[in-house]
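FORM 7B: Structural annotation worksheet

SECTION A. Query
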Amino acid sequence: MKVAFVTDSGTGKSIHEYAEQGIISLPLQISVDDTTYQDMETLNRNDCIRLMKEGKVLTTSQPSAGIIEECFESLKAQGVELIIAVPICNGLSGTISTMTAIANSLDIKIICIDTYVTAVVQDYLITNIKKWYDEGKSHLEIQILVENIINSTNTLLVPETLEQFIRGGRMTPLAAKLGQLLKIIPVLQINKKTAGKVDTLTKVRTFRKALSTAVDEVAKDNPDENTLITIAHVANISEAMNLYHTMSERFPSAKIQVIELPNAIAVHTGIGCIAIQYFKTC
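SECTION B. Predicted structure
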């Protein structure tokens, strides 16, 4: 059976980066004013940050249905019988539903995996699923590996300010003003338990306290040598590196990395946000 592997730019990587691995990536869409950009193709990280700093209201949407259909038609013409897709999760986007509907309309078998999140775990899964298939692992073996990773994944978001939530309409001006006056910072989470939707874990009085609370939450899952911890930031490398040193001391056996938060998430969380995503690797 000829298999194709598909993901999207929720991973923070470009079409070119994945093409080198034999994986297809479809760009999510980011719109501002009257212009719609293809994430990581016609809108890079630097330009995305610049637009946010200018106070622009950026919105996101799933990859164009036309692009998905064109991609799947091409795969069918190439003799592909099965598409394995790891898109941005169902709780954040309708990409899984759209991919499934288009594949069904073209009579191509598709397996869409809901990671209940996005970013690093999405990249890790699509990359390793392809590797496992190339190594000859069975569908059952791969399914077990994937489920173990997804079940161990948690993502925590700590926005430095509430400005982007206000601009994006995710918080009323009154609630935001009250939060700013009281210096309330939410610690948000997204995982399988939240069904892939952003939920509030707790609220604290300062940004530093929020980061400390997030680290305590990570500690509850006992990170070990099999745990990959990613600290992702939005134009806040100094705070990300401070957190890196703190977590390196607290979780010395875990693998820890610092990256920039993918555009599709950053436009909702705003400048200064720190995200922590961790899971058990295979």
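SECTION C. Observations
Residues 120-134 form the longest helix (15 residues). DSSP finds eleven helices and 13 strands in the chain.

SECTION D. Sign-off
Analyst initials: ____
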